[in-house]
């Protein structure tokens, strides 16, 4: 993180991160965190990912975004900032090129390979350096929905299982076996007992992973958490250093995960590695006093997660009414939270196969506005200053 001087009025100088003349983040004397725009004014990011120009419609995406109270282009957006003056948040995406780990849905660099730091520097030089002097660039994401595995299950191998199942040409293969055998007396039989699985040899584990049969026992999950944390630490420490070397003027926003991730992964991409913490709205208690960006907000996803978990709140509301009520409450609380400095709606356009009113985009696939979302979103966006003012008066400044 880069400490900043030239503090704007009412900001505590020791909390500012970033450089004057570019976007910064800092804490006011009243307590809440804010982004600070290049002119030194408080800024709350109201963005959408994937904002694109649709050649089949006459609608101007930048004008639409502004009409809904938006001010920021999220990951995967067209280069509208060149003409429109909108803030934007690109991603570097370090999982590119050859020699990636590609197995069981994982798509990541081998962070144990000696070449990894040089490859990260080359990627940052390619992507970040051309925009290093752009004041409208709010901050860099390391990645846009990278290929990290989700929570291990019987149908989803975890990162440790994947690394143990690689070909020996990968440095991560040798590092993973050294790591895990050291935890179990150097014996595969002891490892198998601790995990509660039948592993007569290493090839048996490889075959299990190739057929996407995961391990989800308590013993395995304990080792998985430690390994994933170490892998993520190596990944994000090197990635962040590469971004800072080639984009020294800009904030580092961490990783846009695209869904829930294990706490160890999230912590590896949080301050002091990045300048903000990327969280879901339901995880604000984990901010630990750091500034927070909600990088994938969507009440559609919140409703889907609730349905998948079997949780159904009491009452007689229809499903649509429940979704919108829960969404209004969640976003209103998030905006008023003293740690939150902005959010990005997860999708500009509906994803394939989705059906309104439970499609996730603000624009339907036929180009029509998703009013079931945009009307409520606009109302909340226009109340940001009011809600943040309430947060200012309720927050206690830390010593």
Quick rundown:
The chain has helices at 61-67, 81-84, 116-127, 159-164, 171-182, 188-195, 202-210, 218-246, 263-268, 299-309, 319-336, 371-381, 384-394; strands at 17-18, 24-27, 33-36, 42-43, 45-48, 72-73, 87-88, 101-103, 106-108, 139-144, 251-256, 277-279, 292-297, 340-345.
Described by the principal axes of the CA atoms, the overall outline is globular
Estimate percent helicity: 25-40%
Report the radius of gyration as a whole number of Å.
Answer: 22 Å
**What letter string, H or E per element, gives the SSE order?**
EEEEEHEHEEEHEHHHHHEHEEHHEHH
Task: Report mean pLDDT, rounded to a whole number.
Answer: 90
Q: First CA to last CA: what distance?
A: 20 Å
The total count of helices amounts to 13
Strand order of the largest sheet: 7-6-5-14-13-12
Query: Which secondary-structure class do the elements indicate?
Result: alpha/beta
Percentage beta strand: 5-15%
Number of strands: 14
